Amino acid sequence: MDFDFNTTASFSSSASVATANFTLPPFTLTPLPHLADHLTDVPALPTPIDRSPFYHPSPGFYIAPSDIILRHILFDLSSSDSTPSSRLLAYHRAGPRQTIRFDPAAVRAAIVTCGGLCPGLNTVIRELVVGLWEIYGVRRIFGVPSGYRGFYSAEPVPLDPKMVDGWHKRGGTVLTTSRGGFNLEKIVDGIEKYGFNQVYCIGGDGTMRGAVKIFEEIQRRKLYVSLTGIPKTVDNDIGIIDRSFGFQTAVEMAQQAINAAHVEAESAVNGIGLVKLMGRSTGHIALHATLSSRDVDCCLIPENDFYLEGKGGLFEFLDQRLKQNGHAVVVVAEGAGQDIIPRTEAQKEEKDESGNPVFLDVGAWLKSELKNWWEHDHPGELFTVKYIDPTYMIRAVPANATDNLYCTLLAHSAIHGVMAGYTGFVSGPINGNYGYIPIQEIAVSKHLVDTKDHKWAWVRSVTTQPDFLKI
């Protein structure tokens, strides 16, 4: 659905105050799949929130179809470009609707966690259970063990608020998880077998791609099943939404590793503390941990190529830093430098159970290269490299307070959307406001570090590291 709109803005300068009229580009409201799109006789029921003792709905409490969120909110008023290429995207706002499409007494909800661990998984599970139970009166809620394969290889686990009460204080996922095991026919057969009509998939980009296929198969079979995805990736690499849950906890925990590396480096003669952080395709954790710490001398991320030898290379920079300070701290994201690490042809083709390329350990490789460099250029001089890999420690901890709150908002947004009959969507914050995004868009979107923006310039100004551009 396309829209055009005009608006008026006031702006001021030190010299004068003026009012100007300007026209924003037209926007397109992204269609959101609904059960009524492929099914007939979808009931329209009054929401039980009206009868809840916990809520006192006021005007504006319920979200209307006309409530939208713009994906982009920054504009250059000096540009008059209004061509189709500049058309804005808008999404439906998340939240409770006045009309629901499921009788709570008939709901059989399934919750599944897939892929690797992430702080906040148990919080999302807990809040889905408590939200369905307390807000909408749903009583049949099940956990699917072992990831997607659990739909056809394990018995669902009944869940209730008492059972999940303390789960938010635990790391990992009580439901257990796994990679791989994606058999579309068996998964949807399992959904039918157990009579699930709401499916909540918690996982990263691979899980979201699988959820797209499940959603499409559910539509093909014309099942009365609503499916939603709750994006989980500690790397914060899922696009469109502001961030994914667990990310802020990971940045906070990374500080402990960086602090330890700094102490080790500072306590040695020509000491280097080397910390490898999570980030296969993006360097958000490394970037934010570097900015938060201020003890990091060099931050290496997948989005910014680097080289070791020669003018402007890593070795030259570290040589200068050791002469100046006597120590240095290097933070490297796990996906950085993969193109310069030697590997065999077999290693180049290797994939994990989720179909992702298997990365070599950039930390261990870089530690070895640093030692070889020092022995070659500074024979006989003292030198120490302390390598710290906190990956599994970080992802296994419980969510911090900020992520716990975020997980609650994600879970409740998902519940409201599903109860309203939406399907094939992901809920998440867009410019600070929660919206519903078609899961197909989330599955193919990426949130990469923009090395040309202010934040990366801030990193370089804090570390004074080279840009690694060969001239």
Structure description:
The two termini are 48 Å apart. This protein has 14 helices and 19 strands. It is α/β, with parallel strands linked by helices and 471 residues long. It is globular and about 80 Å long. Strands 1, 4, 6, 7, 9, 10, 11, 12, 13, 18 and 19 form an 11-stranded mixed β-sheet that branches.
Features:
alpha/beta; eleven-stranded mixed β-sheet; four-stranded parallel β-sheet; 14 helices; 19% strand
How would you summarize the topology of this molecule?
Elements: E1 2-3, E2 6-12, E3 17-23, E4 27-29, E5 45-46, E6 68-70, E7 88-93, E8 99-100, E9 109-113, H1 121-136, E10 141-144, H2 150-153, E11 157-159, H3 161-164, H4 184-193, E12 198-203, H5 205-220, E13 226-231, H6 247-266, E14 271-277, H7 284-293, E15 298-300, H8 314-325, E16 327-333, H9 345-349, H10 362-377, E17 384-388, H11 391-395, H12 401-419, E18 425-430, E19 433-438, H13 439-444, H14 454-463
Parallel strand pairs: 4-7, 9-10, 9-12, 12-13, 13-18, 14-16, 14-17, 15-16
Antiparallel strand pairs: 1-4, 2-3, 5-8, 6-7, 7-19, 10-11, 18-19
Helix pairs in contact: 1-12, 4-5, 6-7
